[in-house]
């Protein structure tokens, strides 16, 4: 993969101004009361090659809309002016942010437009439309959908709800970290999938404010990986168009604000293959009876591939960030997962 420095990229001045802190995350928790669920934290069942009793799963698969994205989207809408709310909001998304924005907008009676890549999961498109949003399909991937979103925003005077590079969105995702600490105060390591970086940035802000020793690991699909190279280079690098089935983390680069936060909090980045993602999805379905999408399974995929990440510095939490897997992909992914786990033999 050739990774280069981006000429331009998706960025936005945060509505809260600057980097969010613990106060903004706690305010987000109040804003989300009655909207986002405090999702379960389960002790993981026995998994191949991983010692028992040291891994916990934060199940955002059981969140409203099936993903953590509702947290950031709902919190951002709490800061809309009456005039902004009247005109409506717009977002670019591969699927989960789309549903989060649509759900939050419907709850507040705000018109919502979502620009999605032309290859977006049909199930996510239908789910977004069912929540009352207008869906516009544009571009081959998230980056191109983002560019179309910006053009439409200017034409129609809509307010952007950024999927990750926004202080209010990051603060909303950070509420997940507060829930982890409430349920497991001795947590030592937290892993989360990374697309634009909003989830991991929010976790970093919340967790390190209250427990600075927590180690944070961001996981990307190798076919859409840029964070590891960016951290090594000390600047944001942009990859080519992603070629992963994990559409929730299929971005060319992380955000400007999120990268700043991830650098400041010394996160580690790891990459996983498509086969490793498929194996993690299969094992989560088999062992927990929960259907997980590629982005949600990425932390477990990293642990299965790198069990040394389960160091003895306290319990490890894998954030299972979403479960919106397209049914049309399920058979292929499970077949690949079975092969990766050694259950079937290719001749």
Automatic annotation (TrEMBL):
Cofactor(s), names only, from the UniProt record: pyridoxal 5'-phosphate
Presence of keyword Lyase: yes
PROSITE patterns, alphabetized: DEHYDRATASE_SER_THR
Family matches, as CDD domains: Thr-dehyd (cd01562)
Domain Tryptophan synthase beta chain-like PALP positions: 37-322
GO MF annotations, alphabetized: L-serine ammonia-lyase activity; pyridoxal phosphate binding; threonine deaminase activity
Keyword check for rRNA-binding: no
Any Gene Ontology biological process: isoleucine biosynthetic process
Family to which this protein belongs: Belongs to the serine/threonine dehydratase family.
Keywords: Lyase, Pyridoxal phosphate
Protein name, UniProt field: Threonine dehydratase
Record Gene3D superfamilies: 3.40.50.1100
């Amino acid at each position: 993969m050739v990774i280069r420095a981006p000429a331009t990229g998706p960025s936005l001045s945060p509505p809260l101004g600057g980097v969010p802190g613990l106060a903004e995350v706690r305010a987000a928790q109040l804003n989300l009361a009655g909207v986002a669920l405090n999702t379960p934290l389960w002790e993981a069942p026995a998994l191949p090659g991983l010692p028992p009793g040291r891994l916990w799963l934060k199940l955002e698969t059981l969140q409203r809309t099936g993903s953590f994205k509702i947290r950031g989207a709902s919190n951002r809408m709490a800061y809309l002016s009456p005039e902004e709310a009247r005109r409506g909001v717009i977002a670019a998304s591969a699927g989960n942010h789309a549903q989060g924005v649509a759900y939050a907008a419907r709850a507040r009676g705000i018109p919502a437009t979502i620009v999605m890549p032309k290859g977006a999961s049909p199930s996510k498109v239908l789910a977004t439309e069912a929540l009352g949003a207008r869906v516009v399909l544009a571009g081959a991937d998230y980056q191109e959908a983002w560019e179309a979103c910006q053009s439409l925003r200017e034409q129609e005077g809509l307010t952007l709800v950024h999927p990750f590079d926004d202080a209010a969105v990051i603060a909303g995702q950070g509420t997940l970290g507060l829930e982890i600490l409430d349920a497991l105060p001795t947590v030592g390591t937290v892993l989360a999938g990374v697309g634009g970086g909003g989830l991991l940035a929010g976790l970093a802000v919340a967790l390190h404010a209250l427990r600075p020793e927590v180690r944070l690991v961001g996981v990307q699909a190798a076919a859409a990986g840029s964070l590891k190279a960016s951290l090594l280079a000390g600047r944001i690098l942009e990859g080519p168009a992603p070629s992963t089935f994990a559409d929730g983390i299929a971005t060319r680069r992380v955000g400007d604000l999120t990268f700043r936060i991830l650098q400041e909090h010394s996160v580690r980045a790891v990459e996983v293959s498509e086969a490793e993602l498929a194996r993690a999805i299969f094992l989560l379905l088999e062992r927990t009876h929960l259907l997980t999408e590629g982005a949600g399974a990425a932390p477990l995929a990293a642990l299965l591939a790198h069990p040394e990440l389960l160091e003895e510095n306290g319990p490890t939490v894998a954030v299972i960030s979403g479960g919106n897997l397209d049914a049309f992909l399920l058979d292929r992914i499970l077949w690949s997962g079975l092969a990766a786990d050694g259950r079937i033999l290719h001749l």
